[in-house]
């Protein structure tokens, strides 16, 4: 007998977003919550995602809308119009959870509930073991996950799919079957069709054993987290890892640090990341290259710059521009180059020019292949690339760094970094003073 109140404490006036696909598991969850809605004065929001890969999906969405109207439930839906080149299940999951989180914020909900059950937990643990993970990853998913302003709750984790289908039958709950669940091309389906039945033949309540295994690993992971946090204090500043300090840590703790930092990009678990990705980051860290990067799932990039490593999500930024200068320019990175009457500063943030030495107007642009500058105090020219390397400018900043040239293409100044032979001393003759800030 399934009683959703046995393993989760509800409170009066809870607001719950329910991820509902219209399948047997999620429809069972919705029915259970409906049965206790009045008792706890629950506000229930049904979140339905049309994955747009089956013709039946539209009929299911229409049914869910009508079901919600009949049962006085808030109905929210979205359709995934197109997919990128990433793994279908991974990409769909990311889109779903972004949708769920938008509804959490819209309705100020305190819970997101999903219908993950015991069989799902077995599949996830087995898949992680084959793909490679850390202790937290090997534990699968948790019954309750603390997010920043809400909790993800999986109240059916102690039951099997068979038990939920029996519940639907006993309570006359209508549901739809996703035909794609039978296709062997999806990894999870193969585990579901071939491994789960074998395990249940060996031990009917094997899901209880896997839940215990999950909880034991979670406990061990929490203990290890304390040591990892101490190491983070030693080698992390902001979002950047100091590699000189990082490599002094135990290799196991190094791996835990990377998994922890990556978890910031992948919701509440690491389903997208495995040992292959971690090894890519390790190879990057221990390589002899001063500036390099590796791409990780969902547009996350691990970027190494000398003794620093930063993990970040790659965003579209303006990295190439060419602007005619006319006394004042606001650059895409919010830095400013302006013409001033004069200034006492003699640093690389100031450049003094004589218009008779150059061809106006000045142009502010990003670097080009083969750029060279005649360096002040140096007999000859130097590659702009080498100037960046000498000044240890991070690779991701080089392509958008401003370079000031005259109308004939002669580089007269790299703001904040280096002056050219065209720069004048304060005692010299000049009629243009530029300031970079």
Low-confidence segments: none
Number of helices: 13
The percentage of residues in β strands lies in 15-25%
Termini separation: 69 Å
CATH class category label of the largest domain: Alpha Beta
Going by helix content, strand content and strand pairing, the class is alpha+beta
**CATH homologous superfamily descriptor of the largest domain:** HUPs
Give the number of DSSP strands: 22
The helicity comes to: 25-40%
Do you know the CATH topology of the largest domain?
A: Rossmann fold
Q: What is the total domain count?
A: 3
Short recap of the structure:
The protein is an alpha+beta fold and 437 residues long.
Structure, described:
The chain has three domains: 15-117 and 154-202, 3-Layer(aba) Sandwich (Rossmann fold), CATH 3.40.50; 213-313, Uridine Diphospho-n-acetylenolpyruvylglucosamine Reductase, domain 3, CATH 3.30.465; 322-436, Phenylalanyl-trna Synthetase, Chain B, domain 3 (Phenylalanyl-tRNA Synthetase, Chain B, domain 3, 3-Layer(bba) Sandwich). Helices cover 38% and strands 20% of the residues. The protein has 13 helices and 22 strands. The radius of gyration is 29 Å and the shape is elongated. Helix 4 (118-131) crosses helix 8 and helix 8 packs across helix 10. The mean pLDDT is 88. Strands 3-2-1-4-6-5 form a six-stranded mixed beta sheet, sandwiched between helices. With 437 residues, the chain is α+β, with helices and mostly antiparallel strands.
